[in-house]
Amino acid sequence: MVPLLGLIELSTAGARATPFPVGRGRDDGVAAGEAESLGAVVDGATGLVLARESREDHPADLDLSAAASAQVLRAHRLSARNMGLSDQIDEVMVSAGPRQQVLRTIGRYPDLFLLALLDKHRANLALARYKLMEIEKSLA
Predict the structure, then answer these.
(1) For the domain bounded by 2-138, which CATH number is listed?
(2) Are strands 8-11 and 2-4 parallel, antiparallel or unpaired?
(3) pLDDT tens digits for 46-92?
(4) What is the per-residue burial (b if ≥16 Cβ within 10 Å, else e) of 12-30?
(5) Rounded to 5 degrees, what are φ and ψ at 52?
(6) Which helix (H) or strand (E) holds 74?
(7) Cβ of 110: how many Cβ atoms within 10 Å?
């Protein structure tokens, strides 16, 4: 069994979800303060959420966002392959309306990615990207 920084544990028997640290304080979670909204570990092949953490007052549908984000990631990977790029996609950022989405692939587990849904007006995007990068590197 391989522990993935408290996010999820993978074993030959399957996956068991554990909390994803979002919104707990300045040095924890994906971004500082109360700006973060949702976070998840997502199976990139199916779009299914394997682990999640969210604020209770946030109306976003994490399952729908995860499925859509998985399609976006697959499209980016296909485009890169069609352009002859051999490097893997590390990160995808999408900004729409009041929300930003950051998808960070997990190098050691290419079928999984980290997803953070952030409030565009309150989130620190640079800090969110840095925290996701730290989580991804700790899993390698």
Answers:
(1) 3.30.450.30
(2) antiparallel
(3) 999 998 887 666 656 889 999 999 999 999 999 999 999 988 899 99
(4) eeebeebebbbbeeeeebb
(5) -150, 160
(6) helix 62-82
(7) 13
